[in-house]
Amino acid sequence: MTTLNYTGISHTVFHLLGIPGLEEQHMWISIPFFISYVIALLGNSLLIFIILTKRSLHEPMYLFLCMLAGTDIVLSTITVPQALGIFWFHAGEISLDCCITQVFFVHSTFVYESGILLVMAFDRYIAICYPLRYTTILTNSRIRKIGVALFLRSYGTIFPIIFLLRRLTFCKHNIIPHTCCEHIGLAKYACNDIRVNLWYGFFILMATVVLDVVLIFVSYVLILCAIFRMPSQNARHKALNTCGSHICVIILFYGPGIFTTLTQQFGRHIPPHIHILLANVCILAPPMLNPIIYGIKTKQIQEQIVHMFIRQK
Length: 313
Description:
The protein is mainly α. Helices cover 75% and strands 5% of the residues. The chain has a three-stranded mixed beta sheet. A two-stranded antiparallel sheet has the order 1-2. Mean pLDDT is 90; it is low at 1-6.
C-alpha cells in the first residue's frame, strides 16, 4: 500500500515484526506479556475503585495514586494488545495514521506519568516538611488544576510530533522491528531530513522527563534533610516509610528507561532483540508492579482490600 507524490514512493502501511530474531519464541514470550497486562488491568482498576469509593482515601496522596493507576491502564492498553496480536496472530500490519496515533498516545502518556510522579514527590515534600499546611496547600480544587496542567503539558508537547511525522516521505522499507510504533523509530524510515524530529524529541526529553527527574531528586534531598532533623526515631521511621512506595515506583519507572538508553548508546554489540525486550519492560513493568507495591506498602489500601474481600465472603 503506497502512494505517489513529488518526492517518490511513500509507504502508508507498515509491518511490525514483534521481537526480531525471536519469532519462533513469540508464543512463549506472549505469556508474560498477557499475564502482566491482566495484572495491570485488575490491579490498577481495583486501586481506582477502592480510592474512589472510600471517602477516607480522598486525600491528595491517594488521588494522585488514582491518576497514576489510570495512566498505567492507558499505557499498557495502547501497547500490549497490539503486541499480543503480533505474537498470536501475526497481525503486525498497521497503517501510517494508526502508527502516528500510537506514537502520540504512547509518548504523551509516558510524559503524563512522569509528571504524576513529580507531583507525588511534591506531595510527600509538603506532607513531611509542612504537615500543618498540607490540607490547605493541596486542596481538591488545586489537585484538579494540577491534573489539567499535567494533561496539557503532556499532550501539548507531544502534539507537534504528529505534524513532524506527517510531513515526512517514508520511501525506505516499511518493516519495523518492534512491537509498537515510536517517534524516532518511525522517522528514521523517511527519506527527508529528520533533524527537526531529532532535536524536538531531545527538547521534549529534556523539558519533561529529565526536568522531572531533577526536580524529584531535589524534592527527596529536601525531604531527607527534614526527616533527619526530626528528634524522634519513630517519627523518622514513619516518614521514611510513607516515601518508600513512591521511591520504589520512581525506580521502577525511570530505571528501565535509563538502562535502555545506556544500552542503545553504548551496547553496540547487544543483539537487537535485547533492545526491543528492554523497551517493552519499560512499558510492561510499571503498570503491573505499581498496584502491587502500593498494595503491599500502604497500610490504608491493604485494610480496604482485606475489608472488601472479607465482606464479600
